[in-house]
Design a protein that fits this description.
By secondary structure, the protein is an alpha/beta fold. The protein has helices at 23-39, 63-87, 104-111, 135-143, 159-162, 177-190, 213-228, 231-234, 249-257, 280-286; strands at residues 15-18, 43-48, 95-100, 117-121, 148-151, 166-169, 194-199, 240-245, 262-266, 293-296. The longest helix has 25 residues, at 63-87.
Amino acid sequence: MADSTAPSAPLDAPIVAAVDGSSSSYHAVAWAAVDAALHRCRLHLITSVAIPTGFGRGITLPDAEIEWLRTDGERVVTEATRVARQAAPDDDLEISTEVTFDFIIPTLLARSEQARLVAVGSRGLGAFQRGLLGSVSTAVPRHAHCPVAVIHSLSAIDAVSASKPVLVGIDGSDNSVPATEVAFEEASRRKVGLVALHAWSDTSTIELPVAGWDGVRESEQAVLAESLAGWSERYPDVPARRIVVSDRPVRALYDESANAQLLVVGSHGRGGFAGMVLGSTSNALLHSVECPMIVVRCR
């Protein structure tokens, strides 16, 4: 088993969920509440009431407008707390709330330094087109210091979804090691199996018998086996199923995600380069999958 390079967080690190009053953000809150209960950690709900344009730190709003913004923010986090309690009715789940006048993206990036995970909805109140990622869900996975969960139209906390496995994309690179660790941990907490998918081709091809195909398949199966070495021993309660396909990773993971409650990927894979913030595979999947997705960056 390769040494873990997953971002480390303090033992008492919370799961931070951003909420703005949109349906997508409340789905993120529900998912985050369940995950916080599974990890037995605090859930921190945060909303920003910052004015997006026309005002800066040097401009003072009238007291009445400040109070109105604060009251509206409190309304949002109060509703988010209700959603969280309904999703995870665990008396031991500690929930804290915050209304900030700072802009949400830099605030979440700062919080991510001390968070176990940051959860955001895929589309906020500013999204206007179906399937379009919002600015928060676009920026935070690229720059956060901890894993980021992006929740789409499905929070996947219903009984049917909760029985599905966790899906992880593995390409054999060091960047997929922390994603593998997070996936096994999530599967163990959720008491479900894990599906490890290795798509070894970067081009769309139809699987046809060709000379040397058996050798290639065996070689790529060995890559996946090496990537999983040790994890099953560390998590003996997680049955792992291996899938090796000759296909583009995006298409293969997208197709398999229909049968998963959660997709976990590294921020960039073997095609990435130093300083790259988000690879083409993880970026494309953020725009396409319906199930919750966690993007895990290496430090």
